[in-house]
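Why show two proteins at once? Because comparison is the fastest way to build intuition. When a single record is shown, students tend to memorize it. When two are placed side by side, the eye starts asking what differs. So, the first record is below.
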Amino acid sequence: MPGEIIGEGLAALLRWLLQQPAWFVVEIVLGGTGYLILRLLRSRRAEDGHACVLAGLVFWAATASAWGGGCAGPQDDNATAC
């Protein structure tokens, strides 16, 4: 009985610790970036959290695509471009 309680408590703690990075990425990185973008594009305050996250996701996807060029892995001198 005490082992089950400790096991469930550790499982809950582990689940909470794993949710924190996901929350940080979605709320802070995507939502914050999207909020700033929508704030620049609109004169009023962007209140819709979903719109902020979507705008941030589009921004970071476009940035990653432009920065990485859409190619995966290292390129050597004889390799053809993607």
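Second record. Ask yourself what differs from the first in the token line.
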Amino acid sequence: MPTLPHTGLQTPDQPRYEVTSCQELVLLRATPFLATLSCGGRKIGSAQNYGDGYDTEFVPHDGFDVADFARFADACRRDGRTISLSLLLDLLIEEFNVGRSLRAHALQGRTLLREVAPDGTVAISGTIPMPATADDRRRAHAALGLPLATGAATQFWNGTCWEHLAGTPAA
């Protein structure tokens, strides 16, 4: 199964469900969102979260069989384990949002940094100019005092995959 690059989500080859738009509303105590899900260019439904601590919900569009999406969710894996429909929606949205951010930063010659903790959790930690050489990566790593979290490995998106900023993962 293919693995999505930003979340580690493993999905079946077909059908290819993806988030094609996402709108967030930042409020004082919550960040509700609404995302559009599509398959082959056809809108199939939306993912909705009211930012109140409850699960993200799938709301199918008219004519879409929700059982198809449920079968897709049942086949998806993360770290070799099955995931809930709500987590699937959250991961597809994260994949979309990170990709959107990477495209915006690339237009300015920059890329995202992320930290991968020893337990596997990942957090975006900043941006840097796109490093062209191993020396650029070492200088950026030293100048930023990375990683920020003890034991974490700092990675940057090189345009195709996440790569360790200092060349090797943290021990």
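One difference worth noting in the second protein: Helices lie at 66-75, 85-106, 134-144.
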